[in-house]
Design goal:
With 90 residues, this protein is mainly β. Helix content is 11%, strand content 38%. It has one helix and six strands, in the order βββαβββ.
Length: 90
């Protein structure tokens, strides 16, 4: 089973629990991916650390997740720079 990864910043902990309040993320987790009690997914905040979490409790306004594992995420060693050129309008 493939675990879904979601960007969520900032991650606020209370013990080993993360509570998510973001409406867009809640809609995606509950209605699109149909997460239920016990479902697992990965949260990351872009700092290089990701968290394997499990849905503990949910309602229409929040999801409480239990942090199962903390691990080093994907860290890019090269910096990407994007440059575009302006064209003349004739």
């Amino acid at each position: 089973m493939k675990l879904q990864r979601f960007l969520f910043a900032p991650l606020n902990f209370s013990g080993h629990t993360i509570t998510l309040y973001d409406k867009e993320l809640l809609n995606q987790l509950l209605n699109v991916f149909r997460m239920k009690h016990g479902s697992q997914f990965i949260l990351f905040d872009g700092s290089g650390t990701e968290y394997l979490v499990e849905v503990e409790d949910f309602s229409k306004k929040e999801i409480k997740c239990l942090v199962k594992e903390e691990r080093l995420g994907i860290v890019r060693k090269k910096k990407l720079t994007i440059i575009f050129s302006m064209i003349k309008k004739e």
